[in-house]
Every structure is written in C-alpha cells, then in structure tokens.
Specification:
alpha/beta, Rossmann fold, 8 helices, 33% helix, 20% strand
Length: 194
C-alpha cells in the first residue's frame, strides 16, 4: 500500500494524559511506559510525514456542560474522580496533542474508548483515501483496543505498533496486544514499512 494511503493514528496522546501539568499528571496517574511514547514515536511521525503519509490524532474529550462542568460518563467518574472543570476540554491546552508529535494533519475528538464511535474519524479517513492505519497511543486495553477492533470491522488494514502503545502496567499491555493479534498485524515501530 502506498504511503499516501497510510495514516499513523495517534490515540489520545494529549497533554492532559501525558504532561506532568495535565489532568492525569496532577493526580499522580502516570506510568513510565506511557511517558516514553512521544519520544519513541517522534521519529516515525517525521518519517510518515516525509514519505507522504498522514498523521491523525484522536483526542479524548470531556464536553463542557452548564457552567463548564464536564459531562463525564458514570464509569469514568468512578475510575477517575479527579477529573473536573477544564480537563480534556475542546480547544484547551490539555486537550491538545503533545508538542513532540504535533502537528497532526487531522485531529478528531472522541467521547468514548473507540475513536470511531460518534466521531468524524471514518469520514476523514475515507475522504483522503486512507486504507491502512498504523495505530499507536494509550491505553492499549482501552482506546487503542477499541479503535483497532472498530477499524478492522470497517475493512481498514490495521497495524498495531506494539512498542508504540502502552497501558498503566506492562501485564495489561501484553494481554491486550496478544488479544489484538487476531484482528491486526502487530509489529514494533522499527519494523514499519511505508
């Protein structure tokens, strides 16, 4: 497949997840595997750009409601009670792709695990002729896994970058990657062919 038909899909590599001053950093919700992703993925981003591929970033979004209080699903409120006003707000610093990987050709807001659920992602990908997705990001067992599965049922050729995604612990990451081998090619970043 041509590079012009390929997109590096960066799932949720946002300041609010990764930066020490972001929502998760302020709450002490970090993991070294997650923090290492921007530096690991930056050379691939540069290569995809240079060879005519696309960079598409997904952005977990907490839609501000009345008075700016975010609309948070009940399961997420239980898991992450520290989330509040201004976190993952559209257009805000925390919502943005981390500087080391910016800019993306397209940024797509998402409100659930899968980047395809109730978003414009599929429309954008089809509109510019993307047929292959190189998937990276966080978390492997959540947004990455859901997005990979949804891409596969939409007939995209999906490659999961095993060392380009991470979870909050290595065991969870490994289990998720093993489960995704039935729906995606799994390769290390160094083995990506464009």
């Amino acid at each position: 497949m041509k590079a012009a038909e390929t997109a590096l899909l960066l799932c949720d590599l946002q300041n609010d997840f990764l930066h020490p001053d972001g929502a998760y950093g302020r709450a002490g919700q970090t993991a070294p595997e997650i923090a290492a992703l921007p530096a690991r993925l930056a050379p691939l981003c540069a290569r995809v750009r240079a060879e005519g591929g696309w960079i598409v970033s997904t952005h977990f979004t907490l839609v501000p409601g009345r008075g700016g209080v975010p609309l948070i699903s009940p399961h997420l409120a239980r898991l992450r009670p520290f989330l509040g006003r201004g976190d993952f707000a559209p257009g805000g610093w925390g919502h943005a792709l981390v500087d080391a990987l910016a800019p993306a050709d397209f940024a797509v807001e998402k409100v659930a695990y899968s980047a395809f659920y109730m978003s414009r992602l599929e429309w954008v990908l089809r509109r510019v002729g993307i047929r292959r997705l190189l998937v990276a990001g966080i978390v492997t067992n959540g947004g990455v896994a859901s997005t990979v599965r949804d891409a596969q049922v939409r007939d995209f050729a999906v490659t999961l970058l095993e060392d380009g995604c991470a979870a909050f612990d290595a065991g969870t990451h490994a289990t998720a990657v093993a489960a995704l081998r039935t729906v995606a090619e799994v390769v290390p970043i160094a083995a990506v062919a464009l």
